[in-house]
Amino acid sequence: MAGRACVVFDKTLTDYDFGPSHPMSPLRVDLTMRLAESLGVVGGPRSTLDVVNAPMATDEQVATVHTAELIEAVKAMSLDPYQVDEVHGLGTDDNPAFEGMHTAASHIVGASVEAARRVWSGEHLHAANITGGLHHAMPDRASGFCIYNDVAVAIRWLLDNGAERVVYVDVDVHHGDGVEKVFYDDPRVLTVSLHETGQMLFPGTGFPADTGGPDAQGSAVNVALPPGTADAGWLRAFHAVVPPLVREFKPDVLVTQHGCDSHIDDPLAHLSLTVDGQRAAYLALHDLAHEVCDGRWVVTGGGGYSVVDVVPRAWTHLLAIVGGSPLDPHTETPDDWREHVRTLLGRTAPFRLTDGRTPAYRDWAEGYDPSTWLDRAIHATREAAFPPNGLDYLP
Fold first, then answer.
1. Which positions fall inside the Histone deacetylase domain (predicted)?
2. What percent of the chain is modeled with pLDDT above 90?
């Protein structure tokens, strides 16, 4: 990889905290950064990943995507969190209010905007914000653990600062509905989401026929995967859909969201990927960034609720790939990291960065089997999204 990479991070980003009983624990971020540091991915003398501070987004930056009414509601709930604002999706089970919520959410927005700025300015070739990826937040309401949509604000910043074409690829197990909504009728942004079908999972959207607004047909792409889809099927779907579209769209920059809740151990969803399959996806997206947009790659985190066993390993692989020095999957997790987990939580942490799988998939060009739900899902997406983008959807 030519050029430096960075992760935008400081510990106060973990102030985005819905409380001890909420599945989106900031501990997952802390454990990730501890593991990455212990392995020398960040902070070590041989690290190829700079750690840079995260600025706070201004209200004006947040308002490039969100309504003034939502921002004011978040501020009000930040001062008095013991209330419910159903109109703006605040104070609910998914999005409980907490003191300082506006500041914490704005900080994550600022970190993603900074990642975008560093890539677009050329200061860094790749930039990551693993606390970001809050892709469900809508312009006028919070949704799905997401108060403000940092990814959408970062993409808007790129467009406002000269980017003409942006591709957003979302590999979270949940549909990237908020980002899609913001850019649904904007032909400059191609949003691609691979997720468990909305027939089975929140937010209940993201079907192949959802292909963009009247002025941007083909700009939204949705792969709605059947529950139980594992590494081979997921990678088959990814490679059948994502690379052809990204190559045809020819973006100036690639923005990706890496929720790792597609893992078989995640408690909130029903896909069956391993850390090894997720790592293969990260490598593929890294390679696409270099192939189509001179390596300009903005990376965010996302969902992931297996706080000890999955998220730290998956995102440490991600950060290593962002830094241009992928880790051997068979690398052992350091003793000090495992001891920290044992002392803090009384749990035994994973011993290796691998789940012991070697990801492989059957290429779509070999033909599809209409008797399988997976292949019907892939075919439906290609049939809906490929022609508006000038591609043949047939194998």
1. 22-320
2. 97
pLDDT grade for 1, boundaries at 50, 70 and 90? very low
Please check whether residue 128 is in contact with residue 299, taking contact to mean a CB–CB distance below 8 angstroms.
Answer: yes
pLDDT in tens, 95-126: 999 999 999 999 999 999 999 999 999 999 99
Domains in the chain: boundaries: 5-52+112-389
HSE of 87, CA atoms in CB hemisphere, 13 A: 8
Q: Quick one: tokens of 217?
A: 């047909």
E-assigned strands of the chain? 5-8, 49-52, 126-129, 166-170, 189-196, 220-225, 253-257, 297-300
Note the Cα 277 to chain centre separation in Å: 15
- The single residue listed with the structure tokens 């591709």 is 167
**102 counts as catalytic:** no
Q: How far apart are CA 191 and CA 188, in angstroms?
A: 10
Q: What is the CATH number of domain 5-52+112-389?
A: 3.40.800.20
pLDDT by residue (tens digit) across 370-381? Answer: 999 999 999 999
Helices 68-79 and 101-121, interaxial angle, to 10°? 130
Quick one: which of 3, 57, 7 has its CA closest to 32?
7
Q: What is the pLDDT of residue 43?
A: 86
Q: Which of 102, 135, 136, 239 is catalytic?
A: 136
Distance between CA atoms of residues 56 and 162, nearest Å: 22
Cα–Cα distance, 238 to 263 (Å, whole number): 16
